[in-house]
Design goal:
Strand content: 15-25%
Shape: globular
Radius of gyration: 17 Å
Largest sheet: 5 strands, antiparallel
Order of helices and strands: HHHHHHEEEEEHH
CATH superfamily: Tgt2/MlaC
CATH topology: Nuclear Transport Factor 2, Chain: A
Structural class: alpha+beta
Length: 223
């Protein structure tokens, strides 16, 4: 059974950002006037921006399938999908077996890629600026950025990253408007749906949302 609640809140990833589109990142200049070498976490965010730019510029030619194919390997490389999938259902992760954990992981990965592929459908010259980074709780790093629309309007968009096993960094959360945690919103909605209707209902809702995105059914606001 489809859940109206989950269908109206799934797909929060970069929802605000996608509505404005993106362009190439600009790094802040140090006092010396020379461009500083970006750190590892900032490079991860910049790499995400670069692939999004590519997809935006070629969006019409690629179509949904082409956008999905181009985005999938990069998103799997830059995001800690297993960590995000686990945290998205909170305490229920410990209650499901290995088969259902694998099912959630696969569906969550497809949904994350679909959310980008279904929303990044054009480009009109907006500007994405990377601002700074700072240490945060639990050994994570926050990378601050904002989007500048053609008319100069800006929206703050921050990324939380954690260390990876390969000594690199991976994105684990996106803070919309600078403070609204995508991961926290998902955990609230997903946990609520599992509690009310069971684990299968969550998978069904995610599958439905993927189908909507593939078919061009994208809400006017983040979902």
């Amino acid at each position: 059974m489809k859940s109206r609640s989950i269908r109206s809140s799934l797909g929060i990833t970069l929802g605000v950002a996608v509505l404005l589109s993106v362009a190439s990142p600009n790094l802040a200049l140090p006092d010396s006037g020379e461009v500083s070498e970006p750190s590892a976490p900032t490079k991860v965010v910049d790499a995400l921006h670069e692939i999004l730019i590519s997809v935006m510029k070629d969006a019409k030619t690629l179509g949904y399938g082409g956008r999905f194919e181009r985005l999938e390997p990069v998103i799997n490389e830059l995001f800690d999908i297993p960590f995000m999938a686990e945290k998205s259902i909170g305490r229920y992760w410990k209650t499901i077996d290995e088969e259902n954990r694998a099912r959630l992981l696969a569906t969550f990965e497809r949904f994350t890629v679909a959310n980008y592929a279904g929303r990044f459908t054009g480009y009109s010259g907006q500007l994405f600026e990377t601002l700074k980074e700072e240490a945060s709780k639990y050994g994570t790093i926050l990378v601050y950025s904002h989007l500048v629309s053609a008319d100069g309007e800006t929206i703050q968009l921050n990324y939380r990253l954690r260390p990876a096993k390969d000594d690199g960094w991976r994105i684990i959360d996106v803070l919309l408007n600078g403070t609204v945690s995508e991961l926290a919103l998902r955990r609230s909605e997903y946990s609520s749906l599992i509690r009310r209707k069971g684990f299968a209902a969550l998978i069904s809702a995610l599958d439905d949302r993927i189908d909507d995105l593939a078919g061009g059914k994208v809400p006017d606001r983040p979902s």
